[in-house]
Design a protein that fits this description.
alpha+beta; 173 residues; 3 helices; Peptide Deformylase; two-stranded antiparallel ribbon; five-stranded antiparallel beta sheet
């Protein structure tokens, strides 16, 4: 397993709609392991393939926050939201591709998602709370959308300028 570099916004790959995955291969399983390792190392609770430069419909997540609970790593291939609640919730979101920037985003409080797992089995599950926020945030990545796209233009531009500055500083280091 290896930790992959995470793309920083703005990057055109983060704004690209990802293509579906045709089949589960050993390379895909290895990629999923690398993505989980990268997510845990960051540390984060979700990571989508475009964040490491791949335009594939693949995401990993683990929204267990309680130290006493065992981790619950999940790999979702070609995930699709099949139902969203009318009730919404607001969560202060961040993103590994937009480090140290947070903003409140309103999303459906509950969603039902179907996907394919690493054993090529069809799966479906309902998510609520932080899990619902996380899965929606990561599926947005697969559709070329970032959490800052939900913000007012001025706030979005301010965050984008900070990220451009961060990228310049990292390039010099």
């Amino acid at each position: 397993m290896s930790v992959k570099p995470i793309l920083i916004h703005p990057d055109p790959r983060l704004k690209t709609r990802c293509t579906p995955i045709d089949s589960v291969t050993d390379e895909l399983r290895e990629l999923a392991d690398d993505m989980l390792q990268t997510m845990y190392d960051a540390p984060g609770i979700g990571l989508a393939a475009p964040q490491i430069g791949l335009t594939k419909r693949l995401l990993v997540m683990d929204s267990v926050k309680d130290e006493d609970e065992p981790p619950r790593p999940m790999v979702l291939i070609n995930p699709e939201i099949t139902w969203s609640s009318e009730e919404t919730s607001v969560y202060e979101e961040g993103c590994l591709s937009i480090p140290d920037q947070y903003a409140e985003v309103e999303r459906p409080a509950e969603v039902r998602v179907k996907w394919i797992d690493l054993d090529e089995q069809d799966r479906e599950e309902s998510f609520s709370g932080l899990w619902a926020t996380c899965v929606q945030h990561e599926i947005d990545h697969l559709n070329g959308k970032l959490f800052i796209d939900y913000l007012k233009p001025l706030r979005r531009q301010m965050i984008t300028r900070k990220m451009q500055k961060l990228k310049r500083e990292r390039a010099r280091a």
